[in-house]
């Protein structure tokens, strides 16, 4: 693609930041990624990605987008030991009191092909690809203090400070992309410079993660992925994924303010309350790697930059800095990838001053179905009062009947998994054909 301007700066080397840098490299002569961490040269956890210590899943739309940006990267990940999940028999999916059938085959298995790869390995490979781009450089161990605007409210530079010695410098730039995550300071920057801050859509989820990395003995567990969703009556769920090099992570999920044990015996006791004995026995036989890690996530937040009437020229925001979704559904990286695709399309349409508003509107279209699905799923497990009790009961009743029928019906099981993997909208489960299968399945079960 033709180079439209000279310089771009990305704040943050998260997955969202790396994808943004990849997009910008096609349109700008130089791209600098400013990252507060000193990035590891090996595959390891890093402080700036606390979520990487918990269960991580890249959904199909996200993996397809990343493959577009970095062709062949998943072949590299498989060669590095990542697993591919393309068979329903490899997974245990519990929904309420029911387990989706594991007898296949799916009608469109290629749509549900998933890669089981740890966040450190995935990020390391993507970062390696970005480092190889000739016009991209990294400035590590630095914080971006704030962008610098001229009198026409156009970004001209960013002020950067070294975390090692406190020295400040200015990086001249034509565009700045904020990819610093949930704690991004762009709203405060806007208000400090006379702009309106973005309205926030926010709702509490009261999520707690407690995770233990393990090495499960070979052959001890047939499934490479285990998911047991929390419910209104049991606000604790679990997920287990087998990653590369024999590593497996067990994550317990507490919703609606449910606190979880911070030690392995406590995690095992909690998991034994709702996971099958064979799975719990395999975890008990495993070798723990490190300690239990606990993380709290209070709320989902969507900053509506697409609704602002005024915005600095040359300032963009991406990833969790725009929309921070409940991580229990594994949509964060896919959301960032879809936003990066929206940015690429807007830049390809022409280098005009309105690229910011166009990008925010395009990103909002990608985020809307994710936000709605998250809100609906969280609604099912959060205690409520008043008029909301009736729709919650109806929603949970239908979900229970759907899961009961999907325990024997591979078509319903596939439809549910397509919804969970962002391939089809939740409304697809309410079509007449699906509803008839739910009724028939429950009649068969008596």
UniProtKB/TrEMBL annotation:
InterPro entries documented for this protein: FAD/NAD-bd_sf (IPR036188)
Name of the featured protein: 2-polyprenyl-6-methoxyphenol hydroxylase-like oxidoreductase
Originating species: Mycolicibacterium hodleri
